[in-house]
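Ops channel
N.P.: pipeline sanity check, posting one input/output pair.
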């Protein structure tokens, strides 16, 4: 047989082999590599407190010398189970002017905090006593009043603190000669969460 004929037969056998399903030799294995990186996202502690813009107390039938109570409802939302809460309360000034000589002072021995759910840590009483000395910046500039001690409050086990909080404070009308008019002040619920 001639050389051309042998080459032609080999080509024909190779083509027939491919058509019949015979496979060509596998290519050599390739090398692969991989690495895995862990991703960590840190969610910081956060706290949001919202409350009423205005609370009106009607003194029409109120007797001089007895406390004037006020109940304020706040919403406290935190992504932690525990929150620290305290209350800052100003005296009530005639026309809301802290330079006025006419005011109604904060009364009683503290502010009462009641949570819709949960309670104070270590059975802390819901009455937070007024501090003996005021820290700068907790009351509006020029105002007098009182600031409570801090209490730690907790949500149900395993839950984030997300609930309504009621603050009860009062003022004492000791001066029967107060001029007629509107007396205004502020109550602030202050919260802190720790990481």
């Amino acid at each position: 047989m001639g050389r051309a004929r042998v080459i032609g037969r080999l080509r024909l056998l190779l083509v027939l082999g491919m058509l019949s399903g015979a496979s060509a030799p596998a290519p050599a294995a390739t090398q692969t590599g991989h690495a895995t990186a862990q991703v960590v996202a840190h969610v910081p502690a956060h706290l949001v407190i919202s409350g009423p813009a205005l609370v009106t107390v009607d003194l029409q039938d109120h007797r001089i010398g007895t406390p004037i109570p006020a109940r304020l409802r706040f919403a406290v939302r935190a992504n932690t189970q525990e929150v620290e809460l305290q209350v800052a309360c100003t005296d009530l000034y005639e026309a809301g002017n802290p330079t006025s000589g006419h005011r109604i002072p904060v009364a009683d021995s503290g502010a009462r905090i009641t949570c819709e759910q949960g309670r104070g840590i270590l059975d802390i009483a819901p009455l937070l006593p007024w501090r003996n000395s005021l820290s700068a910046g907790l009351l509006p500039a020029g105002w007098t009043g009182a600031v409570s001690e801090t209490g730690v409050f907790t949500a149900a086990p395993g839950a984030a603190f997300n609930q309504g909080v009621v603050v009860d404070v009062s003022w004492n009308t000791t001066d029967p000669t107060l001029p007629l008019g509107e007396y205004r002040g502020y109550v602030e619920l202050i919260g802190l969460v720790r990481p």
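N.P.: looks fine end to end. DSSP finds one helix and 13 strands in the chain.
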